[in-house]
Structure formats: structure tokens, C-alpha cells
Amino acid sequence: MAFNILVINPGAGSTRVALYKNNTPLIEENIRHRPEELLKFKHIIEQYSFRKDKVMELLKLKGVDLNSIDAVVGRGGPFKPLVSGTYLVNEKLINDIKSGNYQSDHPSLLGVMIAQEIARALKINAYFVDPVSVDEFWELSRFSGLKGIRRKALSHALNIRMVAKKTAEELNRPYKDCNFIIVHLGTGITVAAHLKGRQVDSSNANEDGPFSPQRTGALPTIPLVKLCLSKDYRYNDLKTILNRKGGLLSYLGTDDIEEVEKRIARGDKEAKLVYDAMVYQIAKEVGAYAVVLKGYIDAIIITGGIAHSKGFVNELKQWIGFLCHKIFVFPGEGEMDALALGVLRVLKNEEEVKIYD
After folding, report:
1. Domains (ranges, CATH) in the chain?
2. Would the pTM count as exceeding 0.85?
3. Is the alpha carbon torsion for 288, 289, 293, 299 positive or negative?
4. Per-residue model confidence as pLDDT tens digits over 54-81
5. In a designed cystine with 127, which of 9, 73, 204, 318 is the match (CB 3.0 to 4.6 A)?
6. What Cα–Cα distance (Å) separates residue 251 from each residue in 93, 217, 254, 266?
7. Which residues have a Cβ under 8 Å from the Cβ of 284 and sit 6 or more positions away?
8. Which positions ≥6 away from 145 have C-beta within 8 Å?
9. Contact 302, 328 (CB under 8 A)
10. Residues with Cβ < 8 Å from 119, sequence gap 6 or more?
């Protein structure tokens, strides 16, 4: 049986929309939002009507018959901690978002809100799949080193779980029987350990792990405290520096890995050193997560936008190849596929839907 699934994925500067027939995209579009369009909104939640209207305009432009849609899925945001899976969007979730009961601000919060309104008008279900707040940590993973501060489970769970399942299929083994280290290389970087189908530990790109194109990753604590007490910055200023102006952008003035590689090709020694340092920090993080799995690693998986760079991936492999000879590379984020496939499994009764509570 064929199902038509509408997929909505809001990001920082765009909203991606796709219509799938089972696992095949019939329409894929990326609605770009100009900075001046978004700056007029004080809070992310206030962008809801603006973005929803843009989605509806696109569907009308593409001649999509709304009554042909069987389900709508929105990208899941940094909600409260949840186990992995495909969830129904319900009023409890929408009320939590509207009341601020979530872990951090991100445009992905809008995905389920838009999905729910469209689905309600069509009298069908809205879903979300593997939000960034997937939390399957064991208790050891939650310790930070200071009582009262606990590590948060926030990761690129949507794409990570999809590539983990793909790798298990290629190995011809059940995902729940596999141990993987997964490296998601994006503007933020996640390194995760999957133990028998459970993400028992992962770096949080906003707070720890390696530095990335935009984020600082873990920092030396005493200099950071000194910076915080310097009175030169407010809380939101520092948060922006750590999560949006750190990493490559801080060192080189660009967060574009292709631009950095072009500089290196022209002989820029500083660009080469920073590039190598980022590879080095990612590799060290992979080594740490090899310890989480006690060295029993069925595969290392590399994914995310930076994985399109064969040079970067090859540099990383030189550091981590000794840990496991099976290294799989899935370039790109794959979020749209992951959202559609998560709902398809539920519609085909291959997976039981979960309820947000």
C-alpha cells in the first residue's frame, strides 16, 4: 500500500518541505528565509504563522492535493528527554512548547506545530521522529564532574539513528545487536556510542565535545569562568559566541569547510593547522566513545554535511582507522528521509507509535 507523507523541517534560515510516496520523494523544496524576514520576530515561536504560511504557499504552487496526504511529520525539537521512536503530535506537546517547557530554543520546535495544524484540518495524524532530545543515556553518562550540573542528552539523533539502521542492514545484522560509534559532522558535531541499539552516550554540540564550524565544543574551565566574569559580555552574548561564533568561524572567520580547504590548497598554513586541529579533536572524541563500548565496535559511521568532503573524511580515518576496520560514510544529513521513513514504519505497522506524555 502506498502512503503520501508530507515532511516539514524548519531550520535556522530555511524550511525544508517534501512530499513522499512511501520512501520516494515526489517533491523536495527548500524555502529560504531572508535574515530581515526573521529578525522582526523576537522569539522563535513567533515565526510559526510566517513559516506555516510559506509552507502552504509552496504546496499550492506545486499543485499538491492536500486530501491525498495520509500523514504529516514535523522535525522534532529539543523537547523534554524522550526515548527514540516515532511519536504522535498531541496537545500535551503543543502546550509544552507554547509554555516554554523544552530544553533550548530552536526552529525545529515549529515543525510539529505546523504539522499538527495541517493534519488537523485534513483529519489525519501528525508525527515527529527521533527528536534532538532523544535520551537513552545510562547514568554514568550524566555525570559532569560538578554536583548540580548534569550532562544533557542532545544530539543529531534523527540522522544518527537512520544511518545506524542502514549500517546494520549492510552488515546483515539486527540493529539491536550492533555496537556503533557514529560521527555526525555538521555546523555542530555529535559523536555517539550506540550499544545494542541504544544511544548510551553522546557529545552535546552546544556544551562539550570537539569544536566544529560554528561551536566551541568543550573549553578550559578557568579561562571560560574568567571570560564570564569580565563584565564585557551578557549571558546571551556568550551563548551566541559559544554556539554560533566559535570553532572554525572564530579561528578563520568562516564556517565553510570548502572555503577552508581552498585556503589550504593556496598554501594557507594557519587554515591547515586549524583544520587539522578540528580533525584531531573529533578523532580524540571517537577514541573516548570506543572506551564506552569497551572496544567492541562493529562499525564506525561518518555522516553529516562535512562528510561530503573526501579529504576531511580521509584525514579523520587516518586517526581512527585502527579502532575498527569497518568505516561507513553517509554524506549529508538525511533528515527528510529519516522523518518519512519513521512515519512509514508506523503506517505499515512495522513499528508501534509512541505517545508524548
Report:
1. 4-135+335-355 (3.30.420.40), 157-331 (3.30.420.40)
2. yes
3. negative
4. 999 999 999 999 999 999 999 999 999 9
5. 73
6. 39, 13, 8, 18
7. 210
8. none
9. yes
10. 71, 72, 89, 125, 126
